[in-house]
Amino acid sequence: MNVIKYLLELHARSVVRHRWWILVLGLLATLALGAQIGSLRINNDPDLWAPQNHEFTRTTRELERVFGGRNFTIIGLYPTSGDVYQPGILKKVQAIQQAIEAMPQAVRRNVVSLGARRVKDISATSEGMAAREMLDPIPTTPAEFAALRQAVARNPIYIDALVSSDGRAAAIVADFTVDGRDAAYAPLHERIQEVLAPHRDATVEIVVGGQPVNAAHLEMAMQKMPVYFGIAFLIILAVQYFAFRSVQGMVLPLATGLLAVVWGLGTMALAGVSMDALNTTTPILIMAVATGHSVQILKRYYEELALRAPGAIDLRQASREAVEASLRLVAPVMAIAGLIAAAAFFSLLVSDVEMIRNFGLFAGCGILAAMVIELTIIPALRAILPPKLPPALRRQDVLDRGLARLGVWLTDPRHARRVVGACLVMLAVVSLGALRIEADSSFKQYFQPDSPVRQADARLNASFGGTDSVAFLIEGPTPDSMKDPRVLLAMRHLQDFLEAQPHVGKTQSVADLLARMNQAMHGDDPSRNSVPTAPNLAAQYLLLYSLSGDPEDFDNLVDASYQRAVVWAYLKTDSTTYALDLYQRSLPLIAREFPPGFNVRLGGSLPQTVASNESLVATKTSNILQIALIVFVLSSLALRSLVGGLLVVVPLAAIVLMNLGLMGWLGVPLDMGTASITAMVTGIGADYEIYMLYRLREEYRRHADLDGALQRSLATSGKAVLLVAISIAGGYAALLISDFEFYPRLGSTMMITMGASAVLSLLFLRAMVALIRPRFITGVTVPVGALPVSTS
């Protein structure tokens, strides 16, 4: 320990002595890292949200490779008068179809409407069967329109998919590819709107929905993050001014935070990590935490300056001595607290979800950057600036007086027992809410009910089968497996089961087309709208179809070898809980109906989100235990006491349980944003406990009076903890104004958790210490007067 003490003293003297060089080097490092920030890009790739080894994710990749279908967009045309069977509307459908197909991002086989070449009327002829394009040509006479209505009616695969059942709306269903590593949906959405713009007039309303539309509006919310960051900056600025009532006390902590953000962003850019929905909020976290560390050491600097300033001949020299003293006293706890917080975030790098890994890397690097900056650049700057004691340290404010009374009250054993008992009872009651928590993600629920996204989605869902989908990938053992009557019948049974479920508006498969062919070949007898059951009959129908149709017409339903097919189910909800339940309830039917050797798997954008939620639930407990173990081991080593490690971990465990409990009672689901709060709370909460225990032990070693040490530490480190909690909660309060619910939910949960964390640190932990009087605090004393007495 003498070696560590010597190194810290050497570091403190070096920072003051070489203050100008440190500032120059810090400036160069900031400029170098800041120059990298321009290369950061928004990445909204759905793969960032999903565990890549999950069955649903692997199936989704296979589906996308063979059939597409990952970025379905629905464009609904609503005539302002009449139905869609009029020349002007049908011409718009055909023109939009062609324009979408021409887009480089379009998956052409999955762009379908009444105007698509692959959308055909299957009908019987004297020679067998014919397949004719629905809009070739566009009808112009009443008789031709009547024939078109009949054609649509006898091909039910298109009803509620391309035309609403009442004929009042028509749809163009499109699918797109988006580059994975720099996936951005806002440009795609903008291009779609450009395609639609010439067709918007008084005769029609055009409504757009689907996953790319939702993702594009998420990016629009992400692009507002600099505004929220600026608001958070102003809130934290106000907190710092309240704390110190001085320009230096207000600016220096925020300088630490801003530099840490720049360093963190620069490191991200160098590591090739993009900005995603979760880590766009991390600059607020880094700024708030870095500011908090700075508050701890700045408050100590002012305490040390207050001891030296009276009677000092050279106030600047007294300031430099105060800088050295504050570094010697606070650097160890700052380094330990910073390393524990960073380790908690870096532990997320083992997650199988890339977005969580990115968040852990960014936050961990930002915390380390803040620690380095606060131990080098900021004290060097303080040693240069003219010293001045802030008014807040020359007189007590309402916070000081309140904490002083609380300190006296807590040292009474009766009150301490009541605090511990009340906290345990409250924890037990609140924690019961964790039993009610659900892992559910509904992307559309992040938008306000009256938002254009939700309104468009509701209208499209009312007119068509659904704006969300799941896909059942069916794989056979050999080519032509999908022509097996047993498999086709199993597909129809699966579709019948799915369509009988709530929120399922439509299903589609190659079995629908073969059923229509079978009906056509039997004189359009409605009772023969069923899959062909005779061996080789499906193959014969497909051969007849190919004489007038195109074999590629079915590319979005079955592959060229007929070894793999897909059953699409269109849903009117994007709840992951519902999608998973739907799949699980379909498994017995799948096992019963499909022949041996056939494999049926679930995929699609919604199941991929299900995979994310399953991963969160499966790894949540292990992640919490992992972080708790890291905090316990490092805290025990730092305090040289297993009891000390427990005193750090127990309040953190209480905070995590309260966080989950409150989410359960308030009906907040476990999703990517709320799940990340555990790591935030653990890393930040560890700071509170470490700083408090170190200051408590220091005060006891000066005075050998635990009650007095509890009171003085509450007025010093306790006040700093409260200010840090207010800063972090205030910073995240900026997210409350976002109209994308993901961010207000994250902000409000963080605010509540920070408040609970501060209360537990100020009350529960101190009451526990007052009752158990741990030996790692009371075991070693220093005679009164051996060390200078700090005041605040």
UniProtKB/TrEMBL annotation:
Ranges where the SSD domain occurs: 254-384
| Topology relative to the membrane | Multi-pass membrane protein
The principal localisation class reads membrane
Q: Where are the transmembrane segments?
A: 20-40, 227-244, 250-273, 329-349, 361-385, 623-639, 646-668, 674-694, 720-740, 746-765
Q: Which UniProt keywords apply?
A: Cell membrane, Membrane, Transmembrane, Transmembrane helix
* A Pfam family reported for this protein in Swiss-Prot or TrEMBL: MMPL
Question: Which PROSITE patterns did the record assign?
Answer: SSD
> Which compartments is it annotated to reside in?
Cell membrane
Q: What are the annotated GO cellular component locations? A: plasma membrane
- Supply the name of the protein: MMPL family transporter
